[in-house]
Automatic annotation (TrEMBL):
One of its GO terms (cellular component) is cytoplasm. Homodimer. It comes from Reichenbachiella agariperforans. Its EC number is 5.4.3.8. It catalyses: (S)-4-amino-5-oxopentanoate = 5-aminolevulinate. PANTHER family: GLUTAMATE-1-SEMIALDEHYDE 2,1-AMINOMUTASE, GLUTAMATE-1-SEMIALDEHYDE 2,1-AMINOMUTASE 1, CHLOROPLASTIC-RELATED. The modification N6-(pyridoxal phosphate)lysine is found at residue 267. This is Glutamate-1-semialdehyde 2,1-aminomutase. InterPro entries: 4pyrrol_synth_GluAld_NH2Trfase, Aminotrans_3, Aminotrans_3_PPA_site, PyrdxlP-dep_Trfase, PyrdxlP-dep_Trfase_major, PyrdxlP-dep_Trfase_small. Its cofactor is pyridoxal 5'-phosphate. GO terms for molecular function: glutamate-1-semialdehyde 2,1-aminomutase activity; pyridoxal phosphate binding; transaminase activity. The lineage of its organism: Bacteria, Pseudomonadati, Bacteroidota, Cytophagia, Cytophagales.
Length: 430
């Protein structure tokens, strides 16, 4: 595979962009090798600067659930562009968007549009703090909620439950208000809540985690968390930036039948444009400015072109619900193929999957939290990633990212993915 153009553009990028990329995981540092620069994409395939084609299994980290170049969405964008790229005034599309979101997502009675998942989670915890008049939040090890200061916190060491900055530039003051607990461990969560009685404003989690690879909640976990929050007056926030509109029209909360107090959205909600949103119970959302005292604003929030793309995407998903079964069946065929490949090769790796999200971990432990996710052999993952890339299958360039399917992946692509998996596994174990 010739990659000369990507290589030279990456070299050029180093002098004006930190690390040559605008988001770190794109740089391939976790897998070795150099990033591929894309030129165009259509359906299930991306084409790079050198003309190589790849089956896309990241789909822009989720948004492209219908594959690339869907004309319903691009036509809506073209039409919106003719009216104006931005007004900075309210527009009717924002009202339609709010109504559609409220009708699709069980927990959302009112919603505010923002421009990214990061903005959504930052704003949601501010509102939860304003509403409860408490300062602390609890998050889970291995969950990702964007790059807001309050979330870039590592678990404190020893007996201290206080968090520690996980990035230079995050202050100790901020860190002390974020408590971190292991995912899928209800006892640890209860203990942390008890130690911080009447101080916890919100518990925030990915109801299905996708940022330590795909990790699903154990039976009863989300229900128990719901009950705990009710008893303790804590705002339960589901960060559905990834799972929203992906696992079901109403996200993971619909799939698992657990209704949080607040929900954060992103990725699919913009149909490929930069959009995020946070919403929840009326009583909580009415805390937001100008209705309430909690300040939050955005010059380009509810941007008309972004709304046009997102509206088309959500309408399509809402009206074509059978596509969720199609996505699940695609996932099941791929996972079954991988398992049969491993049987043939005498390998026993761990696969987690739900709906159109799945991950292979290079460990024989079952992966249920960040600790077990870390048991995956990252060196083997790096080899596997590059072996798949060489065969024209583009995986997430990190073990700790889930893969995302799109409806554009058909039988031919499934076969190619499964065959490539066999060859790649065989190669790295020869
Ligand atoms: C991607 C992601 C975010 C951050 O969204 P950005 O749009 O990248 O800021 C937050 N939470 C979860 C669960 C995500 O997957």
């Amino acid at each position: 595979m010739e990659k000369g153009k990507s290589k030279s553009v990456f070299a050029q990028a180093q002098s004006t962009i930190p690390g040559g990329v605008n988001s770190p995981v794109r740089a391939f540092r976790a897998v070795g090798g150099e990033p591929i620069f894309m030129e165009s994409a259509s359906g299930a395939y991306m084409t790079d600067l050198d003309g190589n084609q790849y089956i896309d299994l990241i789909n822009s980290w989720g948004p492209m659930i219908l594959g690339h170049g869907n004309t319903l969405i691009s036509d809506a964008v073209k039409e919106a562009v003719t009216k104006s790229l931005s007004f900075g005034t309210p527009t009717y599309a924002e009202v339609e968007m709010a109504e559609l979101i409220c009708s699709m997502v069980p927990s959302i009675e009112k919603v505010r549009m923002v421009n990214s998942g990061t903005e959504a989670t930052m704003s949601a915890i501010r509102v939860a703090r304003g509403y409860t008049k408490r300062d602390k939040i609890i998050k889970f090890e291995g969950c990702y909620h964007g790059h807001g200061d309050s979330f870039l916190i590592a678990a404190g060491s020893g007996a201290a439950t206080m968090g520690e900055p996980d990035s230079p530039g995050v202050t100790r003051g901020t860190a002390q208000d974020t408590l971190t607990v292991a995912y899928n461990d209800m006892e640890a969560l209860k203990a942390t809540v008890a130690e911080n009685k009447d101080e916890v404003a919100a518990i925030i989690l990915e109801p299905v985690a996708g940022n330590m690879g795909c990790v699903t909640p154990v039976d009863g976990y989300l229900q128990a968390m719901r009950q705990l929050c009710d008893e303790e007056g804590i705002v339960l926030i589901f960060d559905e930036v990834m799972t929203g509109f992906r696992l079901a029209p109403g996200g993971a909360q619909e799939l698992y039948g657990v209704t949080p107090d607040m929900t954060t959205l992103g990725k699919i909600i913009g149909g490929g444009m930069p959009v995020g949103a946070y919403g929840g119970k009326t009583e909580i959302m009415d805390m937001v400015s100008p209705k309430g005292p909690v300040y939050q604003a955005g010059t380009l929030s509810g941007n008309p072109v972004a709304m046009a793309a997102g509206l088309q995407m959500l309408r399509f998903l809402n009206e074509n619900r059978s596509l969720y079964q199609q996505l699940e069946s695609t996932q099941q065929k791929i996972v079954a193929g991988f398992k049969s490949n491993m049987d043939k090769l005498g390998l026993n790796y761990s696969i987690n999957a739900v709906g159109s999200m799945f991950s292979i971990f290079f460990t024989d432990q079952s992966v249920k939290d960040f600790e077990t996710a870390k048991s995956s052999d990252l060196e083997v993952f790096g080899k596997y990633f590059n072996a798949m890339l060489e065969r024209g299958v583009y995986l997430a360039p990190s073990q700790y990212e889930t893969l995302f399917l799109s409806t554009a992946i058909g039988e031919a692509e499934i076969e190619k993915i499964v065959t490539s998996n066999y060859e790649a596994l065989k190669e790295i174990h020869s």
